[in-house]
């Protein structure tokens, strides 16, 4: 059997769960058996890898816009778990994207000190995407380190949810803004914004990972490419 490596594999740190009332409320909605698995980075996780015939899991923290101190603690905890199971686990760093210079520094620390293989970042910050040049230090550092950034869907901001509301319950709008459509459409939209802003011209060796069969881009690449290439 060929080695199976999985990339979008989350965990949940108590550091994040207890970092704010919003985080506590978010994780309170998780069924206990799911949260137990998310918070485990040892025997239960490795046993599940064996059951799924997974050779190596690239572990990343679940969505959460947190500050530098929290990211540092989360990444250090993940590094310790990887040291306990170095042949089965590897790490994507959690970065404080609200502070791009600090995010770039944390990425470098995690790669050089902990041996992480990249970072997973949320698709936007309350509706703000990363085509603005203020975020580009993170792209520059990722290119210099030759590691990928995984851009992961995240929940819509309040203003973004408004676009999904219609003649149906708000619960439907929330679903459409998330797993029903928005997570994937907005991530594809983000990649097009980076392309149109010249990110890949400035950083030609930058590696970006997206999931979910390309976040809707493959089905429309002929049209979108023609309209964003200048």
TrEMBL record:
Report which superkingdom the organism of origin falls in: Eukaryota
Residue ranges of every copy of the Amidohydrolase-related domain listed in the record: 44-216
Keywords on this record?
Decarboxylase, Lyase
* One GO CC term on file: cytosol
One GO BP: secondary metabolic process
The record's listing under Pfam families reads: Amidohydro_2
Q: Does the keyword Heme apply?
A: no
- Keyword presence, Glycoprotein: no
| Family statement drawn from the similarity comment of this UniProt entry | Belongs to the metallo-dependent hydrolases superfamily.
Protein name per the record? Amidohydrolase-related domain-containing protein
Source organism per UniProt: Akanthomyces muscarius
Q: What is the lineage of its organism?
A: Eukaryota, Fungi, Dikarya, Ascomycota, Pezizomycotina
